[in-house]
Amino acid sequence: MSFQVYLSGEIHTDWRDEIRRGVEAAGLDVVLTSPVTDHDASDAAGDHLGEEREGFWRDHRSSKVNAIRTRTLIAASDLVVVRFGDKYKQWNAAFDAGYCAALGKPYVTLHSEEIVHPLKEVDAEAMAWARTTDQVVKILEHVLRES
Amino acid sequence: MSFQVYLSGEIHTDWRDEIRRGVEAAGLDVVLTSPVTDHDASDAAGDHLGEEREGFWRDHRSSKVNAIRTRTLIAASDLVVVRFGDKYKQWNAAFDAGYCAALGKPYVTLHSEEIVHPLKEVDAEAMAWARTTDQVVKILEHVLRES
Amino acid sequence: MSFQVYLSGEIHTDWRDEIRRGVEAAGLDVVLTSPVTDHDASDAAGDHLGEEREGFWRDHRSSKVNAIRTRTLIAASDLVVVRFGDKYKQWNAAFDAGYCAALGKPYVTLHSEEIVHPLKEVDAEAMAWARTTDQVVKILEHVLRES
Amino acid sequence: MSFQVYLSGEIHTDWRDEIRRGVEAAGLDVVLTSPVTDHDASDAAGDHLGEEREGFWRDHRSSKVNAIRTRTLIAASDLVVVRFGDKYKQWNAAFDAGYCAALGKPYVTLHSEEIVHPLKEVDAEAMAWARTTDQVVKILEHVLRES
Amino acid sequence: MSFQVYLSGEIHTDWRDEIRRGVEAAGLDVVLTSPVTDHDASDAAGDHLGEEREGFWRDHRSSKVNAIRTRTLIAASDLVVVRFGDKYKQWNAAFDAGYCAALGKPYVTLHSEEIVHPLKEVDAEAMAWARTTDQVVKILEHVLRES
Amino acid sequence: MSFQVYLSGEIHTDWRDEIRRGVEAAGLDVVLTSPVTDHDASDAAGDHLGEEREGFWRDHRSSKVNAIRTRTLIAASDLVVVRFGDKYKQWNAAFDAGYCAALGKPYVTLHSEEIVHPLKEVDAEAMAWARTTDQVVKILEHVLRES
Amino acid sequence: MSFQVYLSGEIHTDWRDEIRRGVEAAGLDVVLTSPVTDHDASDAAGDHLGEEREGFWRDHRSSKVNAIRTRTLIAASDLVVVRFGDKYKQWNAAFDAGYCAALGKPYVTLHSEEIVHPLKEVDAEAMAWARTTDQVVKILEHVLRES
Amino acid sequence: MSFQVYLSGEIHTDWRDEIRRGVEAAGLDVVLTSPVTDHDASDAAGDHLGEEREGFWRDHRSSKVNAIRTRTLIAASDLVVVRFGDKYKQWNAAFDAGYCAALGKPYVTLHSEEIVHPLKEVDAEAMAWARTTDQVVKILEHVLRES
User: Fold this and answer.
1) Whole domain around residue G99: which residue ranges?
2) Which residues contact G34 (CB under 8 A, 6 or more apart)?
3) Which CATH number covers residue F103?
4) What is the 3-state secondary structure of chain D?
5) Out of F78, F130, F138, closest to residue E72 by CB
6) C-beta atoms surrounding C73 within 10 Å
7) Which of G79, G135, G145 sits opposite H68 (nearest CB)?
8) What is the number of structural domains in chain C?
9) Phi, psi of F53 (to 5 degrees)
10) Angstrom distances, CA of residue H147 to CA of A6, A8, A35, A41, D138
11) Kindly report the CA angle at E102 between E101 and E104, in degrees rounded to 5?
12) What is the pLDDT of residues D99-124, one digit of tens each?
């Protein structure tokens, strides 16, 4: 049994690598995908389409180019992990969670206990709330075990 | 021509009343709906279902009871307005936007210029970005005008 | 704000009437619907279509005639309440819950604490678990309150 | 021609192995999948996510983790076999059947004659009712035969 | 409780009127709809669009104009009755049945015992097979009864 | 029987009024809807959202505000009429036709014989090609006639 | 470029073999699938499920077992060819055409000129009407050609 | 990461080859597909189905045969590029864009600055507007980069 898992959200810590290492250590048949996590590259995704003076439109253009990738990867995944850090707004992570909810695509959240209350609507639709990347790997181990 | 509009997001300012007054002043045939905006009532939506010691599960229960309302109202609306204030995380607002995006339900965002960058993915799927409630009313006026 | 609620499941106690009385007492704008709850009439729903010696086919025919009603009412409802008694198998109730889950139609379960464990998959997709009909009415009161 | 078949329901007898052996003996190109059938592992699927005092929430958490697997496998299958034993409530099996019905996913039921009446709604939507695992294998043989 | 029922198929006997009279006699809250049943008007539905020498294209044009009506009425109906007479090919009736099946729209068939075998695939997806218009009315009575 | 018809496309001639007069003369129960047909108002639909130096973004903003209206009206209509004049590019009309085709929403085209060839893909998915507004009214008369 | 094509309908002539030979001669990358075309095997598809005295139920059971195969193959195909002979009723072929139409699955019909009129609704939704198997192969050649 | 990209629209310049060369030069794992771009072959796609005197029906037949290919390729693609030249009407390109929009299939447009205004509705739903084939390749490079 194999699984494709999309890793959405926070790009300032190395949680994706932790999951990748855990998945490898556990010998799971999992393909991990993600958005472009190089912050500058992501912000500049549309810059080659022409000069843009307005910040709003620069963001708009880049977000849409990035969305070509994220939409396709979310659609192709069996599970989405949505990571919220404590510091940033990460509205895009909550957006992805809502997007998954409407599609009926299973997702799990990954965040600390401190932000349980503001994330209550997001967690309410999730298949699980994990506090650590190790817990995410354990979920995958269970889901993919020999029956 | 009539329209049903769901007002999602921030519950700490009176932006919903401003839109309501604007819609009435303009004589538009618009039905405005919203989540339960009484903060305490919303947090306590599931409390009558039994005592709950864990904050996570209390939130979980209340969020799901609230979702019975919000899902139905979003599904019934012709347009969703998603409001982001500058202070709070409002992940539920971003979640609703993602939910609308996946359903193909048109939404407009309402927020200040300061938070354009963190909202870029949410704005990218929106039909418009408004800075003021007056602009939202003007959008409705245009959309509902005699052809 | 008005709501249509389909009452699925157990037909041996008067839980539907309790909800009906509660809804009326609370003055809620709710339309309650249900399957044919006259047990004999339900079992005989297809009998006029011709004599049938085999029990399996008699059941088959009647179930399908009943399904014309239940499918339409579930599709038209904003919320489904699924009631499990302690005594009977009520696989049709669990079937309706799974049907709702796949459609993304919100449902709440109504059952005693004794059967929490065997109902865990059904409850996992529910928007709430209520122990009493009074709790169901309270959910409706919250969902339908002035915002 | 190849087929993926999900085996849902009862986990207390070895009916899955019987089908597996029958499929192999018949040389069919069939991939068989199933939920986690180790009862304790299934009940404990969410235990690594943190201590949980309440039985309801422990069940809730585990059911959702298990659902990540079952939803994906049901979606990927060409046919679902839903097995009901005589002893247990197996509401999850009926839930899976309803879930399949709403998705238009073909399923067959596997159960004894004694429980035909309480399963009538579940059987009414099924593509076939089989009494023995041998009959299930025969269905697969027919479905997969050279035309 | 009210129902909209589309009456598809044979146009050479007065079975639609029989159902209409039965529905009225039983005092059912049912709206009956149908295709254009005036044979010549149906065949000529596209003739005003210009002269057409080829029989195939004349049929093609008229069928598509008629389909504007039938598609809309099928989509709006709660139940479809598909009538097969013994004499004609009535491929359009079988087409409507397949169309309903793929949409998950419930339908019942109405035909004599003589043509059970050639209609087996059509009947297999139907909610009921009625031999007489009186049986169709009885199905509606059951479906619409006070619960 | 009543119908809602959306009139898409060309805004430089009075074809919408011709259909409106024809529908009234024929006494049909038809609600006609349309995009904002005041050319300047349509182009300026987003101008109140802030100054915009770039023509592309001004167009972008206005198109999206207009789309709030058109998407909702197309979704609510039973039939769409797509009008192509001989002079302009009217890519928005062809866009609406493609949009309808993917949704399975029936549409008819209205255009002269001169542009049959470049419109062949658009006409191939249409339910009819009309040359005159009178023919459109005749289609509606047929579709809405007493059966 | 490769294609999967389901060959639906008539089982009394060797039209499927003609297409198979044509496809091979043309060197096309096409996988051809079909229902069980052995007439007796198809009629007996459900016989191993137990004795059945009633012809209607025997047909019912076999049709549903056959449908496990046909539904899956239709869903997996890029194109469906629906063949109508002159002699038989072939309501199952028209049923498959309607099923495809509702799913938006492209199909072509294959039949003689004599039955154009009774097939007008079926042809109206088809992507092409072919008179000979050679024409079907030519369609596939065109569809699969190097661009 | 791999991608399938459908290249829709203009067939009079070699823009498809430019993209193909750019994709190869960049070493991207991209499969490019397209409609039949041989103009005469496309117009004659249905000619082998029989003589046809009327231009409208000849076009109709050929368009539908071509649509068997285009529908399948659009459905299978991760991204669609829609090219508009300055000279021709290319209503089929705008039709494809509308078709993608309704399906939620991401597309980018490729056209010069001169036709920004008439394409505003088409661009409003696009993920990006590119002026050169080189920009399209750069979008693909970004979308497919190692995260």
Assistant:
1) 3-41+78-143
2) D147, G6, G7, G8, G16, G73
3) 3.40.50.2300
4) CCEEEEEEECCCCCHHHHHHHHHHHCCCCEEEECCCCCHHHHHCCCHHHCCCCCHHHHHHHHHHHHHHHHHHHHHHCCEEEEECCCCCCCHHHHHHHHHHHHHCCCEEEECCHHHCCCCHHHHHCCCEEECCHHHHHHHHHHHHCCC
5) F78
6) 22
7) G79
8) 1
9) -80, -35
10) 12, 12, 6, 10, 48
11) 65
12) 999 999 999 999 999 999 999 999 99
Q: Please indicate whether residue E87 or residue A41 has the higher confidence score (pLDDT).
A: A41
Look up residue F88 and give its two tokens: 């302009």
Residue H87 has pLDDT above 90, yes or no: no
Residue H69 lies in a domain: no
Question: Residue A88 domain-assigned?
Answer: yes
Beta strands in B50-96 (DSSP E): 79-83
Q: What pLDDT, in 10s, does the model give residues G129-145?
A: 999 999 999 999 999 99
Task: Give residue-wise pLDDT tens across range C102-144.
Answer: 999 999 999 999 999 999 999 999 999 999 999 999 999 999 9
- For residue F112, give the nearest of F10, F7, F33 by alpha carbon: F10
Q: Which of B28, F120, H49, D141 is nearest to G135 (CA)?
A: H49
To the nearest whole Å, the CA of D80 is away from the closest chain G CA by: 10
Nearest-CB residue to E97 (from G95, G103, G120): G95
Residue B7 vs residues B15, B79, B80, D56: alpha-carbon distances, Å: 9, 9, 6, 34
pTM of the model: 0.97
**H28, H132, H143: which to substitute to probe chain A, counting the most A Cβ within 10 Å?**
H143
B138 and F48 within 8 Å at the Cβ level: the answer is yes
- Residue C18 has which token pair? 């309790």
In a domain, residue D23? The reply is yes
Q: Are D74 and D47 in contact (CB under 8 A)?
A: no
Q: Can you tell me the ipTM of this complex?
A: 0.96
D93 lies in some domain:
yes
Structure tokens at C123: 């409850």
